[in-house]
Amino acid sequence: MVVLKSIPNSPDTALQNAGWDWMLGTDTTPYVVNDMVVVAEQQAEQYYEAAATLYEMLIEAGQYAIDHNLFKEMGISENLVELIKLSWEDDRHVHLYGRFDLAGGFGGEPVKLIEFNADTATCIPETAVVQWAQLRNNGLDETRQFNTLYETLVGQFTYLRETNSDLTPSILFSTMRGYPEDDTNVAVLTEAAKAAGFDTEFAYIDDVEFSNGDGIFFQDPSNGQFVRFDFWFKLVPWEYVGEEEPALAELLTAIARNRKALILNPAYTLLFQSKYILKVLWDLYPYHPLLLQTERYALSHKKSVSKVLFGREGANVTILDKGGEVIETASGDYEGQNKIYQEYFAFPTDGAGNTYQAGVFYAGEPCGLGFRRGGKILDNTAQFVGHVVEN
């Protein structure tokens, strides 16, 4: 059972006092609730250890996928394979951050991997800053959280800069238009990059220029001149680039091959983003305590969850009973994709019957915990719930 601590004050004042008031947009605070999940220190450590172990296992699974040429099974476009291999084999292509979605951890239940959002994970502002401000603005000890996300991101950007010392520390951040949540996530990443010594700029992806021979450019609106950036962070899914923008996939491959820019997150994160990696993990580590059985077919002897390979925010997820009958399903735009079937594992609940999924950010190490609250299938209406660590 999930225990909650109700707090009276919203994080607004603390965010304003800290100079983060730009985060108080319509996309962030309305779904951040005034409850906080009470987490024991041992439980926080359990989440930390789970994420650290799972990332090591994912590295092995990624290498297995490459060695056995599983790109087609994983739903990965052929036009991204070269770039995936190139970025995988060159340690300078740093995986900046990702987020594990986990079940369990309450009442003695084991922690189980649901999936890993390796490429374009969101919930950065809520996890890094908003839940910290909730503690601060309610007179609670803001250190009583498993939350060093912002500081760890600064460290990751510093490592990125030092590891790529042949490149100029200039980074362009990009999102697609019309997604204010993405803009706010990128704004936090921009602050972390600045703190690590990068010169930063923002441009929507349709305003970015890509040159096969010369790199990635943004036209300065003040003088019309094109500025080249040696680093480019895109909160645009790699599978979208491969499927919908094949010319861009080709350009980015040439740019990376010619060392004209480094692209974040690296293309190899698509190996982790594909939910087929859950089957690869199960094949490599059958019955590992952190894993749930995952196959290409519905599990006949137990409840299972069908997921499309590149679905997001619960879209096109279906819960099936032992006989394959549908218990609950969520619509979405990904129905044409291939699916995997993962053993069903119930999310922990509170007294009102709400379910909770833990999210643990990984940025070189596990560094931030937050929770999403909703129904049996957590979709884009789920609320964000912060946490407080208590003995």
Shape: globular
Structural class: alpha+beta
Poorly predicted runs are none
Count, helices: 10
Number of domains: 2
Mean pLDDT: 92
Helical fraction: 25-40%
- What's the number of extended β-strand segments? 19
User: Biggest sheet, open or closed, and with what strands and sense?
Assistant: 7 strands, mixed
Distance between the termini: 16 Å
The proportion of strand residues reads 15-25%
Strand order of the largest sheet: 1-2-19-18-17-3-4
Name the helix and strand elements from N-terminus to C-terminus, one letter apiece. Answer: EHEHHEEHHEHEEEEEHHEHHEEEEEEEE
| Rg | 21 Å
Task: Break the fold down into its secondary structure elements and pairings.
Layout lengths: L3 E3 L5 H6 L14 E8 L1 H27 L13 H9 L8 E6 L8 E6 L6 H13 L12 H15 L6 E5 L5 H16 L3 E4 L5 E4 L3 E5 L6 E4 L1 E4 L3 H7 L1 H12 L4 E3 L4 H5 L2 H9 L9 E2 L8 E5 L9 E3 L5 E4 L9 E5 L11 E8 L3 E9 L8 E7 L2
Parallel strand pairs: 2-19, 5-6, 5-10, 10-11
Antiparallel strand pairs: 1-2, 3-4, 3-17, 7-8, 8-9, 12-16, 13-14, 13-16, 14-15, 17-18, 18-19
Helix pairs in contact: 2-10, 3-8, 5-6
